[in-house]
Amino acid sequence: MVTRLTHATIFVLDFDVALDFYVGKLGFTVAMDFSMPNGFRWLTVTAPKQPDLQIVLTKVEATDWSALNETTARCLGEILTTSGMGVGVFQSDDCRKTYEELSAKGVKFSMEPKEDFYGWAAAFVDPFGNSFTLNEAQATA
């Protein structure tokens, strides 16, 4: 029986740019950063209040250790840089405040905060074209 999700992948084009964005701008923590002699790098980050879910920052490249072949890596890189990919939803205690903080750090938003039936939401993209929703759940009585 499957009991929980421990890792999720976000494709990136450059590890240093990814670290600057996810750690420097979003405030995530590096959980693991390990480089092998063959060039493989295992880089994971975690959100401040969710250390048990590691986000694997995976570089889009076709190598001996990568699950991507040349064609897949090229196509995935083109998708990221031209139209982007919808990846997921990040939670915030205060969507509007977080929007202001992240905007001040240079995070590019594709949608300003707006209220909907489920609460507040905004949308932003990482430097590679991955898009995310920033959500503040509606307060329950």
CATH superfamily label: 2,3-Dihydroxybiphenyl 1,2-Dioxygenase, domain 1
Q: In angstroms, what is the radius of gyration?
A: 16 Å
- CATH A-level architecture: Roll
The biggest beta sheet is recorded as: 4 strands, mixed
Count of domains: 1
Helical percentage:
10-25%
Strand content: 35-45%
Helix and strand composition category: alpha/beta
* Tally of strands: 8
Assign the CATH topology.
2,3-Dihydroxybiphenyl 1,2-Dioxygenase, domain 1
Q: Figure out the total of helices.
A: 3
Strand arrangement, major sheet:
1-4-3-2
Q: Your description of this structure?
A:
The chain is an alpha/beta fold. The protein has a single domain (7-137), classed as Roll (2,3-Dihydroxybiphenyl 1,2-Dioxygenase, domain 1), CATH 3.10.180. The chain has three helices and eight strands; from the N terminus they run E-H-E-E-E-H-E-H-E-E-E. It has a four-stranded mixed beta sheet with strand order 1-4-3-2, with helices on one face. Strand 2 (29-35) and strand 3 (41-47) form a beta hairpin. The N and C termini lie far apart (35 Å).
